[in-house]
Amino acid sequence: MLAPLIGIAFGAVATYWLKFTHDDILEVNLTIITAYLCFYVCEQSGVHTSGILALVALGLYMTNQGKTRISHSAEASVHHIWSFLGFVAETIIFTLAGLIMGARVLKSEVI
């Protein structure tokens, strides 16, 4: 129950900061840093809650409220950077999954 509240709190702070930021690079960095810090606070600090649940709540809050605070000039930059990060994450996940499954198949054939 605490993780979504932390995600919403981080989203509210990021939305507030985005209102005063009108630079492409700063707005992109703010969205990335907010997501990373939210996950870090939940997983690595003394809070011990789910970072994934906090990120989902942060993402939902930013989709609803924060998206309107991003300036029109930075909107395309933010979209392109997050699309690229999503592509890289998917590529890493599927590559690792393929390597793990391939290693398991090779182990079962040898034995």
Overall geometry comes to flat
> End-to-end distance, in Å?
46 Å
Provide the β-strand percentage band. Answer: under 5%
SSE order:
HHHH
In round numbers, the mean pLDDT is: 92
Total DSSP E strands? 0
The whole-angstrom Rg is: 18 Å
Helix proportion:
over 70%
Work out the count of structural domains: 1
Structural class: mainly alpha
Tally of separate helices: 4
Largest sheet: none
Low-confidence spans: pLDDT under 50, at least 5 residues? none
Entry keywords:
111 residues; mainly alpha; 4 helices; 84% helix
Description:
This protein has 111 residues and is mostly helical. The protein has one domain. 84% of the residues lie in helices and 0% in strands. It contains four helices and no strands. It has helices at 2-20, 24-44, 51-64, 72-110. Helix 1 (2-20) crosses helix 3 (51-64). The model has no long low-confidence stretch (mean pLDDT 92).
